[in-house]
Design brief:
Layout: H1 2-24, H2 37-46, H3 48-73, E1 78-85, E2 88-92, E3 98-103, H4 123-130, H5 141-146, E4 148-154, H6 156-170, H7 174-182, E5 187-196, H8 208-230, H9 250-269, H10 273-276, H11 287-312, H12 318-351, H13 371-409, H14 420-450, H15 452-455, E6 458-460, H16 475-517
Antiparallel strand pairs: 1-5, 1-6, 2-3, 4-5
Helix pairs in contact: 2-16, 3-16, 4-8, 6-7, 9-11, 9-14, 11-14, 12-13
Length: 518
């Protein structure tokens, strides 16, 4: 019985001890956080006016920040135009006659040499472009030149070769470097000219409209430079007005007339095909039609009268004409002797040239010659020899003709039966017709020169670039900044309402700890 009573007395004591442990030291009591949303929204409501202003300020800051960053980090505007060359290229056939090919297909100048694109930024072109322009900022030639970039465009074949060589170099192929050196890059007849805004040390800028206008004026001035430099804009020399049939003898006048007609025809024949086929809006005729009429005039009138006069030995003052021909003969023989001496001197120099001789250029030697310099020197001598031989042939023909004329003038019996005054009248009539033909050709060429067809050697596209306004360039960033400012403001407002709940829980936990300790 005592044992059972002892056990029953022990049970309530154990149960009472477990209850005390749970109440006094509850497990993880500090980790439980209870938040009353009513109080949170009440706190947010009481701070509504303050955070409404905060939201407005952050929204404005988010919108203005991209605009402020754009002022310091934005890139200057660049406008570009594609320039296309449009002209015929001068070439010579095997006989030495000047011919014109079709429209230029690469960056070759109208005279057949390599086109110098650096002339786009030359002082002459840039000054011509800026003359008469009123800009919002003063623009110097140096600032303009520094902001112009010229990019040539490779042909499809050259681009492939360059890509293959570049890929081989990336693979560290030793043969790639030799292959890259041997690649002959060719370009199409177009190139890109770009102008970047932002000039000078102070970084002043033009407006977008002014920037495009400046580039357009530069390219127009470059086209004028090409026309002035390469186009044959001069009219043919008037060799008919100097013929005075009253002062000169009949044969002298005919010599000048034949030379003038031949030179006029050659001048027209050397024009490009596009100019020769241009049809006038006034007369409906082309330069080829006028050349055909001039050729007919030469064969029917000039050559016939020339043959008639020399066959019948018609002259006015025989002695004066003989003296004139003798003077011309002596001058021609003197020039022929001088050219023959020059030919002999050049030939002696050419005889010393050997193909197996190699001249090595060394930096420490000022007197050594390179192989290219020596080769160019001898090539120039060969060209000079060819020119001298042409002059010799012309002089020999002239001397032979003068001797024949002197022999004919020695026969004094043939001219008595012919009236020199009547022949002079015929000569005056033929000269008048030749002057009319010269005037028609000059009018045709003047019309061509004034037409856009003749004045366009290079056309350019409209200047293109990402020309956007201040707001449109930052619209996306402004929207992102505004949304970010709104989100931050809402987040601050929410945390301002929930923060007192954490403070209240902390105060309650502190009070419990003080009660337990007490």
């Amino acid at each position: 019985m005592d044992t059972n009573e002892r056990r029953e007395d022990m049970i309530p004591l154990a149960e009472q001890g477990r209850q005390i442990n749970l109440v006094v030291t509850p497990p993880a009591a500090n980790d439980v956080v209870e938040i009353d949303l009513r109080r949170v929204f009440h706190n947010m409501k009481t701070r509504l006016r303050v955070y409404a202003w905060v939201m407005v300020l952050l929204l404005v800051a988010g919108v203005c920040a991209p605009l402020l960053m754009y002022q310091f980090s934005r890139k200057p505007l660049t406008v570009s135009s594609v320039v296309t060359l449009k002209y015929d290229v001068v070439r010579k056939n095997p006989e030495g006659k000047i011919i014109y090919s079709q429209l230029v297909e690469d960056l070759t100048a109208p005279d057949g040499e390599e086109l110098d694109l650096n002339q786009v930024t030359s002082s002459y072109v840039l000054q011509s472009a800026l003359d008469g322009m009123a800009l919002s900022q003063p623009l110097t030639l140096t600032d303009l030149r520094d902001n112009v970039r010229i990019d040539r465009i490779l042909t499809e074949d050259s681009r492939r070769q360059q890509e293959i060589a570049s890929k081989m170099m990336e693979d560290k192929n030793s043969a790639a470097y030799n292959q890259a050196k041997s690649i002959d890059l060719t370009y199409i007849n177009s190139f890109v000219v770009s102008l970047t805004n932002g000039f000078g040390r102070n970084g002043y800028e033009l407006t977008d409209a002014e920037l495009g206008l400046v580039l357009d004026r530069v390219l127009s001035a470059y086209n004028d430079y090409l026309v002035t430099t390469y186009a044959d804009i001069k009219l043919p020399d008037d060799e008919f007005s100097v013929i005075d049939i009253h002062t000169l003898d009949i044969q002298e006048s005919l010599d000048l007339l034949r030379t003038g007609v031949q030179d006029l025809y050659t001048f027209c024949d050397n024009k490009p095909e596009a100019i020769k086929t241009y049809r006038s809006w006034r007369t409906g005729r082309s330069l080829e039609d006028l050349m055909s009429e001039l050729d007919t005039l030469r064969e029917v009138s000039v050559e016939y009268l020339y043959s008639y006069v020399y066959t019948n030995n018609i002259v006015r003052d025989r002695d004066a004409l003989i003296t004139s021909y003798q003077y011309q003969l002596r001058n021609a023989q003197t020039r022929l002797d001088s050219i023959n001496e020059n030919i002999a001197t050049n030939q002696d120099i050419l005889n010393t040239y050997r193909n197996d001789e190699i001249f090595v250029s060394m930096q420490e030697s000022d007197t050594s010659k390179s192989t290219k310099t020596t080769t160019d020197y001898y090539n120039n001598l060969i060209l000079e020899q060819a020119t001298n031989y042409e002059k010799v042939a012309e002089l020999e023909v002239q001397i032979s003709d003068l001797k024949d004329k002197l022999d004919r003038l020695s026969d004094t019996g043939a001219a008595a039966a012919y009236d020199s005054d009547k022949t002079a009248d015929e000569l005056a009539s033929v000269l008048s017709v030749c002057q009319q033909a010269y005037g028609q050709i000059c009018e045709q060429l003047e019309e061509i020169m004034e037409s856009p067809f003749f004045a366009t050697y290079a056309t350019h596209s409209v200047a293109q670039g990402e020309s956007r306004s201040f707001l449109s360039a930052n619209a996306k960033k402004m929207a992102i900044g505004g949304v970010a400012g709104l989100v931050i403001a809402c987040g601050l407002w929410f945390f301002s309402g929930i923060a007192p709940e954490f403070k209240l829980k902390k105060d309650e936990n502190t009070g419990r700890e003080e009660v337990v300790k007490g």
